[in-house]
Fold each of these.
Amino acid sequence: MPATKYRFFTNLTFLILLLLLGQKVLLAKVDVYSTSTCPVTEKLDSLKEFNIFSSPQLDNETSGNQTYPDLVYEVKIASIDYLSPISFDFNEHVKRYIEVYTIERRDQVSQMLGLAELYFPIFDEFLDKHQLPLELKYLAVVESALNPLAVSRSGAVGLWQFKINSGRMFDLEVNSYIDERMDPLKSTEAACMYLKYLYRIFNDWHLVMAAYNAGPGVVRNAIFRAGGETNFWQLYDHLPEDAQNYVPAFIAATYVMQNAQSHNIEPTKPAITYFKTDTVHVKKPVSFTILSTETDVPVDIVRFLNPIYRKGHVPVLDNPAPIRIPSSKVETFLKKETAIYEQSLNKADFHDILENSGNKKNRIKMVHTVQSGDYLHKIAVKYRCTVDDIMAWNPDADSNLNIGQTLTLWVDRATFNEIQSSNIIP
């Protein structure tokens, strides 16, 4: 049976707030995902008629980085907790991640809010289909920052960060050209199946999340080391660091994505949405670079809309392969389809690559500060370019680099996203 959960609010300020609200409620919370119901739990109802964030004493109009007293976070998170079968707690670990998102990574949150408009409807549909808590969509915020091209240092890939073997466990095809871990639909289906499997083992969503991050064996061992303890916060010190951080990051991500405006964070709209795209089917191999040139669609957009083609190239397939492009460019593609096929067959050789050194088209500018141990080949590997590129972009540089020296580099969107998200939390 699930453990009885009680929240007692004894803070005098909070009692005053309750008087202002004119209500104090005891509400039963039903866990529809277990075989029984939870007992009555003391929760605070959602504060629809009392906007705490607009209270004058809490506003900080001299800074864009809004921070609030702990009581405010506790109340807002309690309102999320009341509406979810997942326990949403507030403590110093959660507060730290709220600060990470709202202060240190505001730009990333802004981008995620824009991408949420694209991906959250997909996540909600699959979570509802599998009768899973809809709040689990915020796991993808923690996992990948909603970047379908995200690749972690450990080799986990896509929105839901599957490693190659765990992806194959759910029939996600991975080969040298195709990686269905980056397919938003197929990877979300796989994530739902994995989360359901983990819930059958642990019957506790906090432990499910820790297991999703570190593996069920790691969580089992932590429970045994803790003498059978199954409360995540009591189990905290027995888990590896990444798993410790995972649940606080999830709670904080849920809070921030639902309350971003209160921290003066507005969404950055993605360059294109699926509503403005259409699918064409190609019968022969296609290079994204050639497709981009012939249709005048930035190659980063083509890559963003078609993340499963891991080499930026549609290979020879048994059946016509789908490619998603802007709806306005479908007619252009059909007119130039033959030319796209013909040019895609021509593979660039060494001389072509050398002649194209220093190309900036459809690339994003980055600045690298030379550190101890850096040399040109090492930098070229990191930024997925060549030494010839670096020298073309930095004509005043030479092979003798100095610590603190800056180099201008131009990278494709996938490389930019990977470098930017290399420190994705937790």
Amino acid sequence: MLYISSRNPGLAATPAEAIKLGIAPDGGLFTPERVPELGMSGACTIDDMVGMSYLERAKVILGAFLTDFTDEELAACIRAAYGRGAFDVKGVAPVRPLAGPGSQLYILELWHGPTCAFKDVALQILPHLLTLASMKTSEEKEIVILVATSGDTGKAALEGFKDVPGTRIIVFYPHAGVSEVQERQMVTQEGRNVAVVGILGNFDEAQTGVKRIFGDKGFNALLSEMGFRLSSANSINWGRLVPQIVYYISAYCDLVTMGELAPGEEVNIAVPTGNFGNILAAYYARRMGLPVHKLICASNENNVLVDFMRTGVYTRKRRFVQTISPSMDILVSSNLERLLFELTGHNGKLVRQWMHDLAGTGTYEVDSDVKGALTELFWADYATEAETIATIKAVYDSYHYVLDTHTAVGKNVHDKYVAATQDRRKTILASTASPFKFAGSVVKAIAGEEQIQGQSEFDLLRVLADIGNMPIPEGLRDLEFKSPRHTIECAPAEMRNVVMQLLSPN
């Protein structure tokens, strides 16, 4: 199995090289030259995996994509990520009927890791994969992980790479664009090899800045002379995205085991998404053979993906909205590039032109074939702020289940899909964060504005614990008493200088 650039299929890398580099040398995203199908060439089928544990399923799926890692190496990485108590549930990513037996909607809880967000599932294993990849490729330089985050990736990456030998990690986040809890999680991060920088701008500016650093050949040559090589922990790194495929297939297997699905029964998958990585993992699960009818793409008021799915025109020239679901406050969805590469039959020239147009004019339009494929695969809509709040309240009142603001966007859009299509297939809804990460918005939705007056986000953790009869997650419990360790702020144009400053000897 080789990985090819989404902008030039002639640029190829082994799985280990693709994970180590993070992004292709031409700025494209490494994409598998083919998608392995479950049950082909002696591989396990979904039926085979029904009786397996999450760790066993992960080994099957990762092994199909990471062909230069041995079974023993993958098993060791998986045990290190998921078998040492970092997740507060045995199954890593449990799936629960929203309304009990007979429900048509199932919540895939992806937030049981150390930072209470779905990014943990991938970022607890990526450091182990990256360390092995560096060994396999005889890398002698220290790996520097650059991350742009809209909230959750940053803390999950910091926690995953903390004190990992041979690595450093620098996280950039929009200073005024994340919740107080998210920011405190990052700026209090411990570890000898970690740095956190607040950007005086939005996430798209942070993400663009990171991409420019990766694409700056002169700067990369200078870093190489200093003994460093850049890599990424964002979902532009295939090693970040491939572990996310596992939980969709595992959820389906769990539902079969629970008697909620018949083997082979089609489902829909609804995903609240901003950067398109999480729903792209569901797309790859479908390509592997998971019986998925429709991928429901849920956006907040930054609904650039909805407009694109409906019209085939992508434009970042639009109003940016700060919402109560900040991890989705994104106007440039990086992983969409991989989908376009797949839907064009790996036409790197065409994808390269679209990405050039996006960087230059801020917009591009796909052809009729891609438009048709998007319509067949996806259904997209968005939730307003008022709809998000109303959904949290309605689910709590009906089921006494507490959704976070992002999962509420997914639930609202799922309900719109059912109303519009009358498709009542069973649906797996990706729940991407613990409600405690956005306690203020959740408490306001459930108990009203008066319950949040005069209270800090940390006070509201305790209020939410009482309302939902839930324990505060360990990773958030004493956050308010931790002192900030990282205080650097900079404009987007200064990001390269900050990287040099952080990597230069004192």
